[in-house]
Write a structure and sequence with these properties.
Blueprint: H1 3-23, E1 28-29, E2 32-33, H2 39-48, H3 50-68, H4 72-94, H5 101-127, H6 143-175
Antiparallel strand pairs: 1-2
Helix pairs in contact: 1-2, 1-3, 2-3, 2-4, 2-6, 3-4, 4-5, 5-6
């Protein structure tokens, strides 16, 4: 990773956090926020590759988690891991010269699926020992609840990723990145 990649990751992470914080509208499902800002690291993953996209997402979700629920350990174990993995997959399968809309649609669906399964399983394990964000008491989740969290939050993000990212990537590539 060169200096340009680090700079893009940092700026992308800050943008992801800021847009995410502004656009979540207070909607949560078991502490997982409505998150249309997935378009930012998804676009970065397509344009600059897996590591840059994954790192920008990891930085952004950590900043945003600290600003909203303030639990750094939960963010590092669940939010950062799931975001890095999700957008790394997208960049690995559809980033750079490999990009096509078809590859992106498959990559983003797979990346978001894996990322949201990490969130569901991570929150399942977390909730056995600690309260979830925005909750006062310990409320252990069931496996069914964890899978529901994965599905609902996946469904919240997928339309933004599928509809908005391809035209943004096309426009940026056409403009010469």
């Amino acid at each position: 990773m060169n200096l340009r990649d680090i700079a893009i990751s940092a700026v992308g992470g800050a943008l992801y956090a800021l847009v995410g914080y502004v656009s979540w509208l207070g909607l949560t499902f078991y502490g997982v926020r409505f998150w249309p800002s997935v378009v930012i690291p998804a676009t970065i993953s397509c344009l600059y590759g897996a590591s840059v996209g994954g790192l920008s997402a990891a930085i952004g979700i950590f900043i945003s988690d600290i600003a909203t629920h303030g639990n750094a350990i939960l963010s590092l174990t669940v939010g950062v891991t799931s975001n890095f993995t999700c957008f790394y997959i997208i960049g690995k399968l559809a980033g750079g010269n490999k990009y096509s809309v078809r590859r992106y649609l498959v990559a983003s669906t797979l990346g978001l699926t894996v990322g949201h399964l990490i969130i569901g399983i991570g929150l399942l394990l977390w909730s056995q020992y600690f309260p979830l964000p925005f909750q006062e008491s310990l409320t252990p989740l069931s496996i069914a609840a964890a899978l529901t969290i994965s599905f609902v939050t996946f469904a919240w993000e997928l339309p933004f990723a599928l509809i908005l990212v391809p035209p943004i990537v096309h426009a940026v590539k056409r403009a010469g990145r």
